[in-house]
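Bit of a strange request maybe. I'm writing a small parser for structure token strings and I need a real example to test against, not something I typed by hand. Could someone generate the tokens for this chain?
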Amino acid sequence: MSIDLFAPFRLGDLELKNRFVMAPMTRNRAGEGTAPTALNAEYYAQRAGAGLIITEGTQPSAVGQGYPNTPGLHTEDQVAGWRLVADAVHAVGGVVVAQLMHTGRIGHEKITGQQPVAPSAIAAAGQVFTGAGMDDLPTPRALATDELPGVVAEFVDAARRAVEAGLDGVELHAANGYLLHQFLGDTSNARTDAYGGSPENRARFVVEVATAVAAAIGAGRVGIRVSPGHAFNDMTETEVEATYEALVTGLAPLGLLYLHIAEDPGTTYGEALRTLFPGVVIISTGFQGASDLETAQSVVDSDRGDLFAVGRGFLANPDLVERFRVGAPLNAVDQATTYGGGAEGYTDYSRLSA
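Reply from user aminoacidic:
Good idea to test on real output. This should exercise your parser:
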């Protein structure tokens, strides 16, 4: 029997309207001091028809910022901005968690005024937009062992600020080549201390962050995103199965809210992780694959995920779930206005007529 994607779903203590998730998507529209604004609140409230909204990547510290005008969660002004978002989403019955994204080596001094930090002093190939143009990604500074508890504390502080702002929880971004993923990867992590070498050691820091954040705000408010074997941001993982088995073995006792798996088409890492993490709610996101209704139905019916995350569809369709429900055509994304700017290409996409 086919599962009804439009029926309510219980996610821990959260009641979701449906099984569709708005995936985290960088939009580069934070205001002064990288704090969210009323415009950001309007954007998220428009898309609260999703069962769950996962916000754009949000830096837990100043050095964790990788792109211009991305929001943070490490100052009081940022908390006030996120409170605007939480209040607006809740006012229309939505549920929203903040994705905590420390970009690690995917950043630049021209953005933060600081040298990026990473597990090891290994630069990622590629460039980053620094505001005026594209610059090569620099060689990061390797974090010393005695610095790592401080980075854990930054994630904890950001999570506490998210709850203070009224958000429903946080997602730890351990995917897509950012800091937590960099610890997992055997080509980005060349450490010789307890945080490098074996899969268990490379998973250690991510488990410590998740454990500390869960202890601070409650495991029922904490999800985590992973992307096993995905090459984005110059990531290469040669021990994928062993690494993620070690990670999930460390995470499983925590009772986290969900595991968000971003997986390339044709791979089966997600199925293995579901077996290793019994009872956890799985959010499935496909890379470079279809994110239409048919795919969502197939993923949930085949037990590859309990919830299905859609990214680009929500950019141009604030009422995406309703369009799926009635079979309406979708608006096309205006690529020129995806990153940065104001309301154009952000809050001015049309909705279905009432």
